[in-house]
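Practice problem 4.
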């Protein structure tokens, strides 16, 4: 990944996605915001105990850094619902940010609408089809992962936008790594088909699960870039629920510029 500083914020970009000037994307760090305490400092999530004024200002920081375009959010629920942003049907309220609906993946072919996911250990998986001009942002925690929200999102891109999976470029963001993804009750929580990704000490490699789900959906392995950065091991850079408990959420953003 490429560390970038722009307009008072710091964020990482995937090398494979950074080659395309038609999109902007970033995995924002927790730094250079205005929140304090456990939310220090670029927390983008309401409802955690942070001041709403701080969250609003932090979101404006992200909007400026990504180019001042409209940020599109979702009510994330750790499910497998994929939301499609159709600008002809989406009713704008005239704000700089919008809530598309309840779901954990966002897809659009509309320029200037930047899909935003909030994170604190879950994976953000960014997808881009340069041929069809379509982007997606997936919030994949372990519950969504075992329900294969990633494969579901690829199928939505194929069905609704005529994308070919072979044309999709993917980036798997910083998240809970196999070093820290411990599931002591995995026999009750995780289906047996995923036990092949378990280490000897009840840890799971969800990065590998996502790579395999992308590959199973037809995305070429050479098109997939994984950050391999564990959020719990890097709480100075990213928020981590597993590592900190009460904490904020960092942002992952992607959108078309043209």
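Answer key:
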């Amino acid at each position: 990944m490429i560390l970038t500083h722009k307009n008072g914020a710091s964020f990482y970009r995937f090398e494979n996605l950074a080659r395309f000037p038609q999109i902007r994307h970033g995995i924002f760090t927790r730094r250079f915001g205005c929140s304090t305490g456990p939310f220090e400092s670029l927390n983008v999530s309401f409802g955690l105990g942070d001041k709403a004024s701080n969250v609003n200002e932090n979101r404006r920081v992200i909007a400026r850094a990504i180019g001042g375009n409209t940020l599109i959010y979702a009510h994330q629920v750790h499910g497998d619902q994929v939301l499609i942003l159709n600008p002809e049907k989406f009713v704008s309220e005239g704000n700089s940010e919008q809530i598309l609906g309840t779901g954990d993946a966002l897809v659009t072919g509309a320029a200037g609408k930047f899909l935003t996911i909030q994170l604190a250990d879950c994976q953000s998986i960014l997808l881009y089809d340069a041929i069809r001009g379509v982007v997606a942002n997936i919030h994949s925690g372990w519950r969504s992962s075992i329900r294969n929200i990633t494969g579901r999102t690829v199928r939505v891109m194929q069905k609704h936008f005529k994308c070919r999976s072979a044309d999709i470029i993917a980036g798997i963001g910083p998240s809970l790594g196999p070093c820290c993804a411990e599931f002591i009750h995995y026999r009750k929580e995780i289906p047996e088909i995923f036990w092949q990704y378990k280490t000897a000490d009840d840890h799971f490699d969800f990065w590998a699960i996502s790579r395999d789900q992308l590959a199973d959906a037809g995305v070429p392995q050479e098109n997939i870039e994984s950050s391999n950065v564990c959020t719990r091991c890097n709480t100075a850079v990213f928020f981590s629920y597993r590592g900190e408990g009460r904490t904020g959420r960092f942002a992952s953003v992607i959108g078309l510029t043209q």
